[in-house]
Amino acid sequence: xxxxxxxLSRVARxxxxxxxxxxxxxxxxxxxxxxxxxxxxxxxxxxxSSNFDAVPQGVSLSTNGRYLFGGYSFSTIExxxxxxxxxxxxxxxxxxxxxxxxxxxxxxxxxxxPSCWVKEATSVLVGTRNVTIDMVYYxxxxxxxxxHDKSRIDxxxxxxxxxxxxxxxxxxxxxxxxxxxxxxxxxxxxxEGGRTDPTIPIGYVFVFFxxxxxxxxxxxxxxxxxxxxxELRRLLSIHGENYxxxxxxxxxxxxxxxxxxxxxxxxxxxPPHNYEMELPLNVRVRLGxxxxxxxxxxxxxxxxxxxxxxxxxxxxxxxRCFEELLDLWRVRFAVRNPxxxxxxxxxxxxxxxYQAASNTFFRSIEMDLPDISGTQAPLTGLRTILDGCxxxxxxxxxLLGRDPEARGKLRGDLLLPLELRRGRASFAECxxxxxxxxxxxxxxxxxxxxxxxxxxxxGAEKLPAGTVRQIGVALDALDLGFEPDRRYGPxxxxxxxxxxxxxxxxxxxxxxxxxxxxxxARGMVEVAMLAAVSDGTVAxxxxxAIERRLRSTPDLKDEEITRLFACGSALAADxxxxxxxxxxxxxVAPESRAALAASAVEAVLADGRVLPDEVRFLEALHAxxxxxxxxxxxxxxxxGEDVGPVEVVSAIDERTVPLPDEPKRSGVSIDAARLERxxxxxxxxxxxxxxxxxxxxxxxxxxxxxxxSVTASAFAGLxxxxxxxxxxxxxxxxxxxxxxxFATELRLMPDGAIETLNEWGFDTLGEPIVxxxxxxxxxxxxxxxxxxxxVAA
Length: 793
Known about the structure:
Blueprint: H1 2-20, H2 46-49, E1 60-61, E2 67-69, E3 72-74, H3 77-87, E4 116-118, E5 122-126, E6 129-133, E7 136-138, H4 146-149, H5 181-192, H6 202-218, H7 225-239, H8 243-253, H9 281-292, H10 299-307, H11 316-320, H12 322-336, E8 349-355, E9 362-370, H13 379-392, H14 394-402, H15 410-413, H16 418-421, H17 425-436, E10 438-439, E11 442-444, H18 445-451, H19 465-477, E12 480-483, E13 499-504, H20 516-532, H21 540-552, H22 558-573, H23 578-583, H24 590-605, E14 609-610, H25 612-624, H26 629-643, E15 647-648, H27 672-684, H28 689-693, H29 720-731, E16 734-735, H30 736-745, H31 750-765, E17 770-772, E18 775-778, H32 783-786
Parallel strand pairs: 14-15
Antiparallel strand pairs: 1-2, 2-3, 4-7, 5-6, 8-9, 10-11, 11-13, 12-13, 16-18, 17-18
């Protein structure tokens, strides 16, 4: 034992020397044992403990010779001391008694106030701050009240003007009494600002919301229910994108049917998504009342029903365009359910339970009404209608996403589904503008584009194919048709300085251009109009003759007749080149050729006179149709019997042939001598037909590069021969004779080559590239686009 005490004495002395820098007194030199210092490590004797005064508090020596601190053991006292210094914070210096105490960061506590509900805006004292609040609980409760303490503003609780605008101090389950003083300050700011800040952290909104549900359901303040529900709807409009708040607020709003609010109001806005597993109470009550009264569900009933299903989500078109979705839904629902939707009466009654968002109370609800929650059969059809509505609004929705200002404008309304287009204000304005610019059924292309809100490229001679398509789609939506329209037959490209014929037609008056009767009638109209304009003018009687012939043609529908007559008006305003028009007659069926010739003769004779230019055209027409010239004179002779004497103007001196004075006889009234003179005159001008239908001999062309210079296709998508042909056309226009010769040299069919090049143009540029009128050329509108495409051009 003495040895152990001696060893401890030496260790203590060594420890004291290390810690104090001075030798420690020897245990043997002590006269009397000293009292151990407070906090000194316990030892086997009082005299021994006095030697540990320099050791940090908490360091002790175990019986096995190891040093202990904070639950850890160390082999040397240096290790234990170092660890103790690192783990022990130095105590704060004591404040001298004469120095005043520093104030706290928060404001002093306020005075106690009676607990109450603040219904209207009132100025109250919270701490040292005056704040105006309404629709909240206020005051200091006499005792703990879990049902109200979540939202009550206790004026005795401290507030900190530094605030917590970012909500860093908020937790998930909030209550006013547990808010940080800084958060209380920000909450009071939000209340005093009218609760309108959309960027406030949602935790503050929930503290206010707890008070609303407590006032309505715990205090049963039925007279305040309208104001509470109105405030909930206002908050939802601000914070409805927060799914947690939207879920709790919507669930409380669903109880409005229990407080006198009608559940049969028309739908005006999209209901919030239902995050619960059961239908909202107000929807169940609305549909239950319908069944109880034995009434069918209307469109709004069924829309609320399907939108209240927890697995139904309004996609972006439905959210962005809910007003249009609602209109479209009502139209399509009425088509499928003209008398409403009848639903079999369920046997179960409505049972529900409201669990408070504050988690401090719940309310059980039972009603003697049929519960629709278990009915599933009609929902499949309703889902189909809803999905179709959203899909058909997707294009319109995408436009609004890029251009919100397009709503209500023509560019936006044109993308609406068909059922919503009629009655739009923008459509009425556009029709009025088109009507003002239309004279005798014809309107300038630039005026039509302006009325449709389309911008034309300055200086362009022809409209791009994309612009023409836009015009067609827009006029279809306006229930207007137009000609020339390439969708319903071959036509020349629209020119910016040209005119088009407009006519009323549902959805643009679509027809089948390949239907035999329509195609034949169109050819007849084109030929008749060429005959009518061959003298330079078109008389109204000639147009009437074409209309009579159309209406007497069997198998033609009303919409086809309307379009064909508009086609004639467009041709009269902008007649095509004679040669290009007659070239199409090569494809006319043999059985239809006589009818075409007859229509042309009828158009010529409609104004009561025949001019040499008209005779020339009829001669050329019969030649193009492969009909003998004698058939023309026979037609003139027969027509003379029906319509009376025909005035024929001389081709040489333009003297008018006098009409016979005697009244019309039942026999033939055509003077044989005059007819012979007409034949003679047409014989004299037969040589002139070559200038109309036969190309002049081409001038010597510059030498062509040798064929070997183009060994591969210069244009992607064209083979080498067609590429060579396009390269030549890009160099300069070619007469038809020269073009045919060069195409033959390349072993190509001339007409087939033109068709191939134009198909390539449609695939590449969206429009034909080769014009075949008096000569064959590349359209000036696309030359600048084509030339850079040729790798060898």
